[in-house]
Design a protein that fits this description.
3-stranded antiparallel beta sheet; binds ligand F0G; alpha/beta; 2 domains; 5-stranded mixed beta sheet; Aspartate Aminotransferase, domain 2; Aspartate Aminotransferase, domain 1; ArAA_b-elim_lyase/Thr_aldolase
């Protein structure tokens, strides 16, 4: 267990507050046992997500002060375009207000009813946009990807044989693109290897299918490649990113995660693909030089993209997460291994082995963690899956409680506090009961759904 060292110092702080156990119980009841519906005044450590919650650098904040307010032709846009060119190597840039907006534009431009989109794994918003366009997501991960206790360094790999079979079965004309998600979010922030990306790209290219790369967590995936794939042990993060991008036709990202900013973008060197997306940009997002972002966000992302290639920044979240995971493992708490990016993930099916998936173990555990600690995590299990067309629950492959570690936000003592409380709760796990829906939205129900104890 390596103790991570922070290569930054704190310049500005925000006061936080630890509500009493009675207040926490009241707050989670009012929130319908859904951590999304808690107010932050009732939260001690906000580990819901790393999205838009990473600490920004002094250089990012400085850049925001000099942003160029213009509807069209803003200089801020050209700074972002320069960063995209230098860091990612792409000539054409389409800004979007966040990652899911980029997904919407891609689905709008390329997915037709009846199409299938092969992926290493789905992300909630990605799947929603493919579904809404009339397409279907096919998850073609390798055997072992869903084993939560594992030593496989690259559980985010796509299975090349399954990709070949999908192409043979559906035909090239029904596959608008293949999507690879860096540091695959819903299976526990697990990376894919460079070797795998190269193999997948070769198969896709052979059939003229574009490869779409979701780079929301690109710097983490690059860091894991450097740490875990011998070919890259002496490479810089920038060199790994450059090599990754050689295999990519369309790149997109949420700017809220690796880039430690807000917003999102799509980038490519393929003029034809760019021109297929461009007309939709002002329809849904805004003019092509701001795409729904404030110019301050554009500036912050321009700096954040460059900073995410710095070794100590690329490693900052991942090293804290590794420490968090190893500490919980020491305490006997079932967690996803190897440690990934984004978060420490608790395996709710192993934590609550007697609770059926129909009672939402990950949802119940996320609520219990909050009651026990004031730490707000996020359910990533069956609650995060919408019902099928017949109205049945779709049991999730995994039931995870995600305790996100936003980059450079919390300290070691915060992590130790969370470990201590989760360990305490594990000792009392027989007291945790299941949940049922009392209010359930039809799409992405995890955001606004309200539940109650069974
Ligand atoms: N792709 C991935 C891999 C993501 O993790 C996210 C967001 C998106 C796309 C959508 O981007 O939020 O900017 O619209 N993940 C956040 C999370 C919400 O909490 O994991 P967005």
């Amino acid at each position: 267990k390596v103790i991570p060292i922070e290569m930054h110092k704190v310049k500005i702080v925000q006061q936080t507050n630890l509500p009493s156990a009675a207040q926490r119980l009241e707050a989670i009841r009012e929130a319908g046992y859904n951590t999304f519906l808690l107010r932050t005044r009732d939260v001690f450590l906000d580990m819901l997500t790393d999205s838009g919650t990473n600490a920004m650098s002094d250089n990012q904040l400085g850049a925001m002060m000099v942003s160029d307010e213009a509807y069209a032709g803003s200089e801020s846009f050209y700074k972002l375009a320069d960063s995209v060119k230098e860091v990612l190597g792409f000539q054409y840039l389409l800004p979007a207000h966040q990652g899911r907006a980029a997904e919407h534009l891609l689905a709008k431009a390329f997915v037709k009813p009846g199409d299938v989109v092969p992926m290493n794994y789905h992300f909630t918003t990605t799947k929603a946009h493919v579904d809404l366009a009339g397409g279907k997501v096919l998850e073609i991960f390798k055997d072992g990807a869903l084993e939560t206790a594992s030593s496989n360094p690259f559980k985010g790999n796509m299975d090349p044989d399954k990709l070949k079979a999908v192409i043979a079965q559906y035909g090239v004309e029904h596959i608008p693109y293949v999507r690879m998600e860096a540091t695959t979010n819903l299976i526990g922030g697990q990376p894919f290897s460079m070797a795998n990306l190269r193999e997948i790209k070769a198969i896709a290219s052979q059939h003229g299918i574009p490869l779409v790369f979701d780079g929301s967590l690109i710097s983490e995936n690059a860091y894991f490649i450097q740490q875990r794939e011998p070919e890259f042990k002496d490479a810089t993060i920038q060199q790994v990113i450059t090599e990754l991008m050689k295999n990519v036709d369309i790149f997109y990202m949420s700017g809220r995660k690796s880039a430690a900013a807000r917003g999102g973008l799509i980038a490519t060197n393929n003029k034809k693909l760019y021109e297929q997306i461009l007309p939709w940009l002002p329809v849904y997002e805004g003019f092509s030089t701001y795409g729904g972002m404030s110019t301050k966000e554009v500036e912050a992302m321009a700096v954040g993209l460059r900073e995410m290639t710095i070794q100590s920044i690329a490693s900052s979240g991942a090293d804290f997460i590794a420490y968090f995971v190893r500490r919980l493992e020491e305490e006997g708490v079932p967690v996803v291994t190897p440690p990934g990016g984004l978060a420490c993930h608790i395996d709710a099916m192993r934590f609550l082995p007697n609770m059926p998936q129909a009672q939402y173990p990950a949802g119940a555990l996320a609520a219990a963690v909050y009651i026990a600690s004031g730490v707000r995590g996020m359910e990533r299990g069956t609650v995060s899956m919408d019902r099928d067309e017949q109205g049945n629950d779709v049991p999730s492959d995994l039931e995870l409680v995600r305790l996100a570690v936003p980059r450079r936000l919390y300290t070691m003592s915060h992590i130790e506090y969370a470990v201590d409380r989760v360990k305490w709760l594990y000792g009392l796990r027989n007291l945790i009961g299941g949940l049922q829906f009392v209010e359930e939205p039809p799409v992405l129900r995890f955001f606004f759904g309200r539940m109650a104890p069974i």
